[in-house]
Amino acid sequence: MFLAGSPSHTLRRIPMLQWLLLLQTLERGVGRASPAGAPLEDVVIERYHIPRACPREVQMGDFVRYHYNGTFEDGKKFDSSYNRSTLVAIVVGVGRLITGMDRGLLGMCVNERRRLIVPPHLGYGSIGVAGLIPPDATLYFDVVLLDVWNKADTVQMSILLRPPHCPRMVQNSDFVRYHYNGTLLDGTAFDNSYSRGGTYDTYIGSGWLIKGMDQGLLGMCPGEKRKIIIPPFLAYGEKGYGTVIPPQASLVFYVLLIDVHNPKDTVQLETLELPQDCVRRAVAGDFMRYHYNGSLMDGTLFDSSYSRNHTYNTYVGQGYIIPGMDQGLQGACIGERRRITVPPHLAYGENGTGDKIPGSAVLIFDVHVIDFHNPADPVEIKTLFRPPENCNETSKTGDFIRYHYNCSLLDGTRLFSSHDYEAPQEATLGANRVIEGLDRGLQGMCVGERRQLIVPPHLAHGESGARGVPGSAVLMFEVELVSREDGLPAGYLFVWHQDPPASLFEDMDLNKDGEVPPEEFSSFIKAQVNEGKGRLMPGQDPDKTIRDMFQNQDRNQDGQITAEELKLKSDEDQERIHEEL
């Protein structure tokens, strides 16, 4: 934008000394010669396009939005709002613009185009702007005004058509249905209800509409047509809305009121298909994933989760969805199909939504419940098979296990299976190697046992899901424990099955040179494992585990272990206790 002291948002501020020099220059009234040769005393304004209707002209203190191109006398461009794809939005006459631009904008109409010639003393004077505008430069601007408003503005209403009979006028808290065309002040259309084939429905004065529309609809009769002009501070203000309504934009609505009423109805339910094994029904507080087709009463489809290939996921009875759907989903079973008919005041009747659901429309949802759970749900465990022989040892935290599994969604969609690979899945229980719910479900199993596990998402992949797993999905596992090995105590890489040798270092020092290098250490540990005297942490690379053990014992990191360095972990732990005491 062309602000005072800077022709572009990319320019740095002019230093104070340059400002003082510029003020001195302006006081002297120095300016370059115009194209005709005579110095310009004021801005030269050429109004080369004036709209037929000009209900308002720019005055001092008005807020304006405009586009411009800025060039020098030779036609070279030095700045342009078009290059930034952003209009200038600024107040006129308060020192935010160079004086020449302030003067050149006065009296402009929306959609008017002007060519301005700004002499140096009304631009950047004898100082200019380093690297961009030379001293004593005459500036040429091509400007188109797109919007103008003032903080003192109110909503402007013009009655275009009023029916001869008006049984009722719109008041605050009424529910209305209306058609509209919405444009910016320059006539650019941003939205209309007609293209969506339905009215816009909302309550008045309840905050569902922008404040200006709330005011503009008051007093309307059914069948009345109005033109409503809303300043930005009663519309979408500094932020605008999406890509269609720019920041600080005045809005113009041409409105046709269809009706005004206060509906009162309840939700209607119809069961289309009910699974035989319905052991649980949804209640308030449950989190549900479901598919749906949504249509109007005339059969017009307005939305479908199937088209997105993704379920709709939400809490039931918590106000995250329309009240009628909140009510209609409660009591449903997993796998059930039901039709839910929702009246407008329990649907989108108060404010409508998007471009497909008209106001005061009865909505019909054909719903298929995929799954639901409660944030307090534990893992559900069902034993499918348990070996008939005695099972004295079961899996527990720290154990290294191998297991097969099939994983699916509750609707039967297959996700993963260990049978797709050459070997069973491996995991150390309690080591965060698998999702928490599966870890819990695998504990307490006998080798050969098979279970069905129902894992809620907060114990699985949560709201975000994972590769191949939808967000908030309840997972069903069928697992079979193939093998189990006792784990090691926390912090241990190796444990003895019996008391360690009294002369541990001497046994480890194979060449009796008083030092144990990595090769001797590795040979000794592997020998203990092979002879059944001890075992390494299961599920890990033995060589890496032994290297880690050596690293722990080689306390001075010289590549050798001495008798003074070698200590059992149990001894280390005891020493640590004494140190703490």
Describe the structure.
One of its GO terms (molecular function) is peptidyl-prolyl cis-trans isomerase activity. Residues 564-581 have a biased composition (Basic and acidic residues). It catalyses: [protein]-peptidylproline (omega=180) = [protein]-peptidylproline (omega=0). One of its GO terms (biological process) is collagen fibril organization. Its EC number is 5.2.1.8. The protein has helices spanning 16-28, 81-84, 99-105, 211-217, 323-329, 436-442, 504-508, 518-530, 542-553, 569-580; strands at residues 44-49, 63-71, 77-80, 88-91, 113-118, 139-149, 156-161, 175-184, 189-192, 200-203, 225-230, 251-261, 268-273, 287-296, 301-304, 312-315, 337-342, 363-373, 380-385, 400-409, 414-417, 425-428, 450-455, 475-485, 494-496, 534-536. It is α+β, with helices and mostly antiparallel strands and 581 residues long. It has five domains: 44-149, Chitinase A, domain 3; 156-261, Chitinase A, domain 3; 268-372, Chitinase A, domain 3 (Roll); 380-485, Chitinase A, domain 3, CATH 3.10.50.40; 494-580, EF-hand (Recoverin, domain 1). Strands 1, 2, 3, 4, 5 and 6 form a six-stranded antiparallel beta sheet that branches. A hairpin with a 5-residue loop joins β2 and β3 (77-80). The longest helix has 13 residues, at 16-28.
